[in-house]
User: What shape does this take?
Amino acid sequence: MSQVNRIAGSSKRINRNRTLTFSFNGKEYQGFEGDTVASALLANGVDVVGRSFKYSRPRGIITSDSQEPNAIFQVGSTQATTIPNPRATQTDLYQGLTASSTNGWPNVDFDLMGTVGKLGGSMMPPGFYYKTFMFPQSLWMSYEHLIRKGAGLGASPQQNDPDSYDKMHHHCDVMIVGGGPAGLAAALSAAQTGARVIISDEQNEFGGSLLCSTQSIDGQLPSQWVEKTVAQLSDMDNVMLLPRSTVFGYYDHNLVGINERRTDHLGEHQLQSTRQRVHKVRAKQVILATGAHERPLVYGNNDVPGCMLANAVSTYINRYDVVPGKQLVLMTTNDNAYKTAIDWHQTGRKVVAIVDTRAASNGDLVNKVKKLGIDIFFGHGVIEVKGSKRVKGVDVAPINATNHSVTGPAKHLACDTVASSGGWSPVIHLSSHTGSRPVWNEEIAGFVPGATVQQQHSCGGLEGIYALSNVLSNGFATGAIAAQAAGKGDGSYVGKAPKTSDPQEDASMALFHIPHSKKTSRAPKQFVDYQNDVTAAGIELANREGFESIEHVKRYTALGFGTDQGKLGNINGMAITAKSLGKTIPETGTTIFRPMYTPTTFGALAGADVKHLFDPARFSAMHKWHLEHGAEFEDVGQWKRPWYFPQPGETMQQSLERECLATRNSVGILDASTLGKIDIQGKDAREFLNRVYTNPWSKLGVGKCRYGVMCKEDGMVFDDGVTACLDENRFIMTTTTGGAAGVLQWLELWHQTEWPELEVYFSTVTDHWSTMTISGPNSRKVLEKICDVDVSSDNFKYMDWIEATVAGVKARVFRISFTGELSFEINVQANYGMQTWKAVMAAGEEFNITPYGTETMHILRAEKGFIIVGQDTDGSVTPQDLDMDWVVGKKKEFSFIGKRSWTRFDNKRDDRKQMVGLKPKDPTFVLPEGAQIVFEKNQSIPMKMVGHVTSSYYSACMGYSFALAVVKGGISRKGESVFLPLSDGTTVEAEICSPVFYDPKGDRQHV
Amino acid sequence: MLLIHCPYCEEMREEEEFSPAGQAHIERPLQPEDISDEQWAHYLFFRKNPRGLHHEMWLHAAGCRKYFNATRNTATYEIMETYKMGQAPRVTANEEGQS
Amino acid sequence: MSKSIQAESPLHHAQLEQLIGQSSEGGITLHEHKLLGHLNLRGNAADTAFLAGVQEALGVALPTAPCSSAKSELAQIMWLAPDEWLVIVESGTEFDVEQKLRSYLTGHFAVSDISGAQTLLELSGKDIIGLMKKSTGYDLHLESFPVGKVIGTTFAKTGAHILRLDENTFQLVVRRSFSDYVWLWIQQSSQEYGLTIV
Assistant: This one.
């Protein structure tokens, strides 16, 4: 098919020297560089671009901008590059573009659902969503399946997105949203003060309404003024221009989110470049110059392809040299839309008539039209359109807008295009994002931005200022004022505003809904929200059913719920609600627009934070060694810790048993570098420890270590670890791996807010030290080989630490144990960590030193009944619950953190869940962690749950499985049986026992 | 995303540098053992949740690691002031507890 | 410590040395100032004896204005907080400088050797502002971030202290355990500009 609707115009916005081939629903078409998919389809005379959501009616292109509710496509040729739901009116054409209707399964021209359209409609009356959500919840799943298939929600890509995305932060004095006449004028005047200015526009080039306007500026074409102004701005170092950049959200404290489409217009998958970039702009002042959207009128069968917005028709003619039909009927409530009839007439195609709802008008444009000899029907409305896949004609009748009635017989006019204009709605979406309630402006019959807490200005069409000369002067003034508010300039514009002459316009009429000779409920469908098939009758039905708040009407009818957020239909919907309830529009109010202004891809929002950059991975200095030795890794916070070190052919369980036995019988080595370490210095360090730990620190001598438990003020355990006394006034505290940052913040919180008088400083040294723990009966023999200090039992006692040289490296060695075996924790400066680790491995070779990971560490410590905070505790466990009263200082002077709470009633109950050991009756069965515990086996469901398993393993050293658990009153129930009903329906029995399974006297760690 | 003035770094910084740290100006009872369970529970658990002015603590986690106070309107997210630990707010709610 | 002991900087595994000279066209240039001495210094900026002691030990007045820095032959000092500074000294001198500070200082102060805990990356080049804008939300305009200023802020999804050395040169102090992430981030973010390792 050729471009039947492309005329020999003179637009510079398209490049006729570059023909682009594209396909739509499997057919090939041609367009030009500069086209949107919509303008190219209209050029080719494609009428039907999709099917409607509920009634499956054929739909055509209505708008030329972000309001478009029908031409919403699936664009992209592969499962990796396909994009659901871009608007054809905002999709730049590129060579080879592949698009299809999202709604129109199986085929837009012959739609299976269309033949059962009535059924579809009656299955889904207004309120369908609402009622479905309310009542048959189980049915929703099956409805959803059906609806999604027919609903035009688009299909998400099935393969990974090959493109790359990123984000950038910016700061500026004045951020201008919208590059039309108001925005460009504001940018120019703000920039001339030296202010840092950013201006963005969603279209492929700046100019906004001027790109399709014929009104001269300074005696030149408006596009020439745009070109000159953009060139001026580009030359200024303090200005950043962002075309193809949609401001999708306006957030707190003047943060503006922008999505720049950098390569979308070039084709799919542009290697080596960022496809979309999100700019986060923190602006001192924001100017919204988002303009206004034309509002369609609501009339019978107003969705038949060929029904369009008046301004959209002008845009296609003037900007794209496309006349989307042969015979036009224009219906308007205002003078402004007469431009469309003039534009159409000048292409040489026929304007059948203008139907003006007003009694009369004597404006300049009206008089111009009269001179052209075009018929005007004043006091009339188009009450109904004839045709199904394309407009064939209209019924025009005299109307009385005040009492919503048709006052005379209808006359039929043949035509193929109906353009309508109900006036303009300021684009208040971004202003609404900040929580500002829009205010109804009677004069323009539209909402304008209301009061805001942001440093925000608005100008031009957004303020209801529509005459070009006023828009430009308002833009210049606003730019200067915003710059001054940002500290630049004196608030006045020094330049000269360009000359324009605006046609005199008569008053427009506030009319939204055209009456029909039948009652609304009986009249042909009058669509308000095209995307969701919401009709005037549906809204009136909602009102009759008692939904009067506009927010309820919205949820009941789905008005404004589409991906277009009701840009086209919301105001009409509110007006119809107001009329039906006998209220004014301000009384009815408006719903609030929220981000995103238009749909934004997940890729853009994710930016570069994907795959290995999704979450930082932290590594110890020995990580490369672990990799080379086949470790499997476990995530502990952001750390990658060796989980276990499988040898070829081993299962995980076999590895764990080998690692456990090697450690208990000879020597194992663990990378413990990830434990948090805090250097605590100052004369009050000791007193501070007394206050934050439950146990006493006053008498810990230099060279000694002590285990400590920290509680929150509610008395619950939140971290534990060993702290060593380095010097009279200096300690090194270790924390759990996951708790490191939180503990440091906790210490700082108390020091900075409650006890600033204590002289103490905390500094994190976690990353400074590489820590390797050698554990097992042969660990001393290994250490002796590479250590310059006597580490014999007499000289280096349990819970001592020494400074020594290990393998030639200065080290701190702690004789502490988390396995219950003789253990040494060697700490060296991390730059020497790898070297030292390798030396220890070499020294241990003769003892078959075995690297082990976190899982073996967990088994070995659990055999000893040592808790892991966060695994055996969950923020509701006191030291007493853990049977660890020994770690609570009884004579400490200061009422340390957590102490007072232990005497609270709830914490003294004797049926609190307490930590115990569990021995399954079947010694080979490993209880699932998290399994619930009951006292009585035979209970009806729900059973009385009395606790759960916190840690559970098979012990290779002991030859049976075991667990740690919390059980109500468990400490006094040792020897009793409990039952664990499992998810597979079976119930297993276990015996409550001491949590210390291995070496209960603790001899092994003291040798 | 808020823009927050750190009174120690003495400049505005992006919210992502900070962590919220709860209601400000809660003082730990000097003698916890001398007060009733109920009084202790008030100190532990009871927090304001106003619509309007709220004095709250923030931590400049990615910056100077200092805690400070802010007076923020919880409805509009305006931050009226930030001030150092130990200082009193200049902006306070009126008698009704609202602004 | 024995000379035969091989120290490995946090980016040792990236083998940056082998990438030097591989590309000279990049808009971004990266250099790791590895294995320097890093000392965390704490003290009261209102304590004149403390200030005098530091000046004597390091040969330069402690920068006490927020986000300021100072440099002497011995050390580069970055303000981290009203009572906290980072002192960067030549590789291997950290122990001596720490002892020197301890001998000159009295009263309430703290010094921690954190040389193993972090590394110093220098990023420069004609496109450096682009990379920095992708990485941090701080305003990089010279009015807001003049030469010599140091800020603690977020860098991608981790944190860094960033010192501006000149209009197009920044030094980043990053934690050892996050350095691989930072290295990956720099590679990703400089793709459109080209990355040169020096």
In short: Chain A is about 25% helix and 25% strand. Residues 468-485 of chain A form the longest helix (18 residues). Chain A has a mean pLDDT of 94. The interface with chain B takes residues 169, 251-255, 280, 282, 435, 453, 713-714, 745, 748-749, 752-754, 756, 895, 899-901, 903-905 of chain A (CB under 8 Å).
